[in-house]
Structures are given as C-alpha cells and as structure tokens.
Design goal:
It is built from five helices and five strands, in the order αβαβααβαββ. The protein has helices at about 5, 25-45, 60-70, 75-90, 105-120, and strands at about 10-15, 50-55, 95-100, 130-135, 140. It has a three-stranded parallel sheet with strand order 1-2-3. A two-stranded antiparallel sheet has the order 4-5. β4 (about 130-135) and β5 (about 140) form a beta hairpin.
Amino acid sequence: MTQASKQQRDILVTSALPYANGPIHLGHLLEYIQTDIWVRYQKMRGQNCYYVCADDAHGTAIMLRAEREGITSEQLIDRIRGEHQEDFAGFHIRFDNYYSTHSEENRQFSEYIYRQLQENGHIATRNITQFYDPEKKMFLA
C-alpha cells in the first residue's frame, strides 16, 4: 500500500432527494441502502465520510396535495418528513444529516449562490412561454 492510499480522505455523499409529497418507495430504498453500505464501508476504512440528504420540499405537487388534504404545505412537508425518517430507520439507513430544502439555511445559500452567479455574468435571461391556471391563479410547473 502506498503512502498516498493510506491518507485519510474527506468524502461528502448524497442521494437523490425524495420528494416531500409521498412515501418512500422501493426505488428510493434501493438507492439509499446501496449508498448507506458504501458510506459505512468508507467509514470502516477510516475515511471522513459524511452522508447527507434532505426532503425536496418545493413544487406544485406538494401545494396541491396539501390543498386537497385541507392542510398547509408546511404541515404536509413536516408529516412526510417524519414518515420518510421512520422508513429510513426501519431499514437501518443512517444519514449524518437529514434535512429539508424548505429551510431558512437553504433559502439563504440558494440566494447567495444565485447572486454570485448573477454578479459574475453566469445568469442568462430570456422570455419563455408557460401554461397558466386561471382558477388557481398560478403558472404551472
């Protein structure tokens, strides 16, 4: 084994974020279990490996489901997050940090990144055509 291969690495790992409008399904579990195994292997090898993930809590589907259930989007997001965490725990999937895209930190970081890109000329603006729902008074995804 070479000296370079013995050096401890810092590894940040994530999986596709589950959408916060429904339960975890078999496809999700396949990815999370495989990733969890790989992360545990890296940690056993002595690597600084961190497994982070979050509920993707933005989108029209969440708003419409919450409306159908007569609750706020935030109530749906909180309930689904709890269900997701129960499912992960039931399969012994361990994240070093599991969070939500519906957080103040995420908003601040997203706005910071956007401003930096805009200030450095990396944001293009153009007109697009988008469908509009006159009953809901909103543009459709």
